[in-house]
Amino acid sequence: MPRAKAALGSVAFLLIAPGVTAGVIPWTLTDWRMEPASPSLRATGAVLIALGAAFLLHAFARFVIEGLGTPAPVAPPRRLVVGGVYRYVRNPMYLAVGATIVGQALLFGQPGLLVYAGAFGAAVFCFARLYEEPTLAAQFGPRYEAYRRAVPGWLPRVKPWRGE
Predict the structure, then answer these.
(1) What's the CA gap between 80 and 139, in Å, rounded?
(2) Cα–Cα nearest to 131, from 57, 50, 71, 69
């Protein structure tokens, strides 16, 4: 039953947080109007959106499968999530949402979304540093500190971390 609750909570949080951040806000800013852009920029944008969505869904699933919780601060995971894409980078959800926003900017030829992507990046960087990292350190102690030392927050490792 805990896994079913975690899945339901994760789906709700997915719709609320990334759904608003990478869906509603970009749509509000642009109406997703197609402005002039080269085919290569549009193709790059489509690839970024697809990859961002895939990595985001994978990262959310890890919270249910491995963490028995959600990414939402109100229902955090019971276990430290370090599998899957988290073996390469500590903040794959933020990177995936950012890639999706940049992808929309390229696909729709909307440079204003690049400004929004920069603001999003600054906000999540501050949130991760000022709230998430201290909270995870308090909750998971030495295990999180070892993970934090080994796995970069923003630029993925080439080889997966194996808990060395």
Answers:
(1) 9
(2) 71
pLDDT tens profile 45-93: 999 999 999 999 999 999 889 988 888 888 889 999 999 999 999 999 9
* Contact call for residues 99 and 21 (beta carbons, < 8 A): no
Measured CA to CA, the distance from residue 34 to residue 42 in angstroms comes to 10
Place of tokens 């990859």: 51
For the chain, what is the HEC assignment? Answer: CHHHHHHHHHHHHHHHHHHHHHHHHHHHHHCCCCCCCCHHHHHHHHHHHHHHHHHHHHHHHHHHHCCCCCCCCCCCCCCCCCCHHHHCCCCHHHHHHHHHHHHHHHHHCCCHHHHHHHHHHHHHHHHHHHHHHHHHHHHHHHHHHHHHHHCCCCCCCCCCCCCC
From the number of C-beta atoms within 10 Å of its C-beta (0-12, 13-18, 19+), residue 76 rates as middle
Question: What Cα–Cα distance (Å) separates residue 121 from each residue in 26, 66, 73, 103?
Answer: 14, 26, 19, 14
Residue position matching structure tokens 């949402």 = 97
Q: Are 84 and 67 in contact (CB under 8 A)?
A: no
Local structure of 109: helix, strand or coil: coil
